[in-house]
Design a protein that fits this description.
Layout (H helix, E strand, L loop, with lengths): L6 E5 L14 H14 L3 E7 L12 E5 L23 H12 L5 E4 L4 H6 L7 E4 L7 H14 L3 E2 L3 H4 L30 E4 L8 H10 L4 E4 L5 H9 L6 E5 L3 H8 L4 E4 L9 H8 L4 E4 L2 H6 L6 E4 L4 H9 L6 H11 L2 H16 L2
Bound molecules: uridine-5'-diphosphate.
The site of uridine-5'-diphosphate has 18 residues, from α8 and α9.
Length: 361
Amino acid sequence: MIVKSLKLILISTPIGFLGSGRGGGVELTLTSIVKGFLDMGHRVTLVAPKGSILPFDCERAELITVGGIDQPSWQHQDSHASMVIPLEGVLPKLLNVALELSKEADAILNLAYDWLPLWITPLVETKIFHLISMGGVSKVMQNEVNNLSNTHHSRLAFHTYSQASDYELKDDPIILGNGFDLKNYQFKLDNKGPLGWAGRVAPEKGLEDAVQVAAALEDTLVVWGFLEDKEYASKIEASVPSGTIEWRGYLDTEVFQNQLGACRAFINTPKWNEAYGNVVMEAMACGVPVVAYDRGGPSEIVKSGITGWLTTPDDIDELTQSISKIDQINRINCRDWAVETASYQAFCKRIFSWISREINI
Ligand code: UDP
C-alpha cells in the first residue's frame, strides 16, 4: 500500500555509462531499484554519466545524463591513495544536478562509491542515503564511511555483513542484500553444460584460479565479462593449454542472462571482499550451482551443500574437488533460493522501509 508517492533521485556510478559494463554490478542493481520503485508507484529520476541507457521496462523513469571525466576506480589504486577529482570530473556534476533536483524530491539515493557524496551528506539539507557497493578497498573511503556512520549511521546501507565488516560502524549495519528481475533468468534443468565464470576481468576477481580448475579437469571455462585489464587476461590465457578459456566478452545483460543457465557449474573466485557478487545470484537464478570461495558476499549467498559449495579461499585443489560433487546439488534448490531471497521487488521494499524511516512519509 502506498502511503505517499515518493520522489527519489538516484545517483549512478561515476565510472562508465550505464550499459558499458565498466560500473560492474552497480549497473544492474540500479536497474532493479528503478524498476522496483516504479512498480511501487513512486517517481524516480536517475542522474547518470552521458551515454547511459535504461532498459525498456524502466522507461517511466526520468533519466538525466551528464558529461564529464570518470572517477578513477578505488579498487585499482593503492589502498592509501588520496581522493582525486579530475578536471571536468563527472562526479561533482552528478552531485550538483542531483542536489538541484532534490529541492523537489524526498531523498537522494547514492550508488556512487566515492568520497564526495559521503562527505557532503552532513552539510546539506537534502537527505542523502548511500547504498555502499564495495568493501573497504581504500583508507580514504573507509574513513569517510566510518565518519558518516558516526554522525548519520542510518543513511548507510550495505549488501552483506561480510562487506560491512570492512568498516568501523557506530551501530549494527543495515543490510539490504540485492535484487534481480527473476523472470529474466530461465531455469535450466540440464546439468551437462560447460563450467562458467563471469565478472569484470580484473585481478580482484581472481579469474586465474577458476581457469586453473578448468585446466586441471581438462575442461573448458566459459568466461563472460568486461575486459578491464587486458594484460592480466593475456597472462591468464598463457598459463593454461589453449582452448581452456572460451571468451564470450561483455554481453548485453539480457543476452548474458540467457546464456548463463547452460552451465553445469558456476565458479566464483574473488580475491577481495566482494560486496555481494551479482553473478553468483544470477547463476543460481538459472538453476546453476555455484562453487565459490568462502569469502565476502558469496559466502553469505551460497548455501554450501544446497545451492553449491563454499571452499577454503585460494585453495584451488579443494575448488577442483568440489566441481566433482556438483551433481549432488539439486538445481531446483538454486532457483528456489534466488526466488526466496533475491527478487528485485523484495529488495526495493527493504530499501523503501530503510529510507522511509527517516523521511516521514
Ligand atoms: N554482466 C553483464 N554481461 C556480461 C557479464 C556480466 O551484464 O557479459 C553483468 C552481470 O549481470 C553483473 C555484473 O556484470 O550484474 C557484474 O557484477 P558483480 O557484482 O558480479 O561484480 P562487480 O563487477 O560489481 O565487481
